[in-house]
Amino acid sequence: MKDAASVQEDEGGVRAGNATFVPESEDRRVRIEPFPLRALAWWGVVLFAAAFVVGRQFRTVDSGTSLAGEQRQAAASQTTPPPAALASAAAASPPVLTSHAAAASVKPTGEQAKQAVVVPVEVRLMKFNPATVELNVGDTVEWKNRDLTPHTATAENKSFDSGSIDANASWRYTFAEPGSFPYVCTFHPEMKGTVIVK
Amino acid sequence: MKKRQLILAMCVALGMTSAFAAGEKKQSKDAAAPPTDPQIAMIAVTADQVDIDAGKLASGKSTNPQVKQFADLMIRDHTSVNQQASALVKRLNVTPEPSATSKSLKDGGDKNMAKLKKLSGAEFDKAYAANEVTYHQQVLDAIDKVLIPNAQNAELKSLLESVRPVIASHLDHAKQLESSLK
């Protein structure tokens, strides 16, 4: 009680601008008490900031590795896409195509080689994408027209001809013979592609 | 002394360029206000329709198989583009709005039709092909300089970006046709 009173007195003294009358020892007693609290608070802030920085760094490392993973996945999908890639391909396709897209693959290897696959070719912005696809005998190419105008996929040797594929429609052809099949859109002959069947 | 002259020359040059820039800005402002999305939609639809009409006339009137083939391509492609554009406009709830640009497109199309109707044979073919070259060049310029830069809706902009390679392809075809008729 007495201490508290003296503190009040001290503060009163300070407020009155009479700091010189406050004994040094008492002044220290008053100030010492909040010091550890303030220090604690500062440490808290510093630790929090440190944790934040470290956390961020870990996160960037994480996203970096997952990005690399995606790139690897994307690279892999050009040969044999993992099921996840297939699912995302299916999700990106219009509803008409989803039932087939699950079986989509570009180039089967090993055990999958005997399984018939469907290779998608997107027709967009007056281009076949990818312009060249490789597949095995028995595989199917599906041309998906995502353009604003009708297109065709017509072999230069006339071995296949889609006829008009309307905007948002698609057309499939199964390759029974090995060989290289350059093809064009007969409506827009500057649009060229090649199917290589092994 | 030399340094001072140089600085003076630079100041003059700067002043002149900025004056020029201001003049240009004023000129383009005077020419036409940028079109709104409903106006852009109308311009796109009108441009398509004008070329479909000319194509139908050429497909029926010409006896040249190359001209007929080109005219059929124009009808097929522009009809399809128009269907996609109309579907988007409907989905976005945009009502196409006429503007000076869409009116001048329509008037130009009407004039061309009137001119073509009076011609026949090789003269008709040449006039049709020549007009298709200038027409597609104008539309391509409008897409690049007016329509795409001013389109506000992302889907409308994306549609125009997809229309662009179609028009560029038609322009090439038209140029080939025109030179083959010479």
Summarize the structure.
The complex is a heterodimer of chains A (198) and B (182). With 198 residues, chain A is of the alpha/beta class. In chain A, 42% of the residues lie in helices and 20% in strands.
Question: Would you write up a description of this structure?
Answer:
The complex is a heterodimer of chains A (198) and B (182). With 198 residues, chain A is an alpha/beta fold. Chain A is 42% helix and 20% strand. Chain A has five helices and eight strands, in the order αααααββββββββ. Chain A has helices at 2-15, 24-32, 34-77, 83-92, 95-101, and strands at 118-124, 127-129, 132-135, 140-145, 154-155, 170-174, 179-184, 192-197. Chain A has a four-stranded mixed beta sheet, covered by helices on one side. Chain A has a four-stranded mixed beta sheet with strand order 3-8-7-5, with no helix packed on it. In chain A, a hairpin with a 2-residue loop joins β1 and β2. In chain A, α4 runs antiparallel to α5 (95-101). Chain A is elongated, with a radius of gyration of 36 Å. Mean pLDDT of chain A is 67; it is low at 1-30 and 57-108. Chain B has 182 residues and is mainly alpha-helical. In chain B, 87% of the residues lie in helices and 0% in strands. Chain B contains six helices and no strands. The longest helix of chain B has 30 residues, at 2-31. The termini of chain B are far apart. The A-B interface holds A 124-127, 147-150, 164, 166-167, 187-188, 190 and B 73, 76-77, 80-81, 83-84, 159, 162-163, 165-166, 168-169, 172-173.
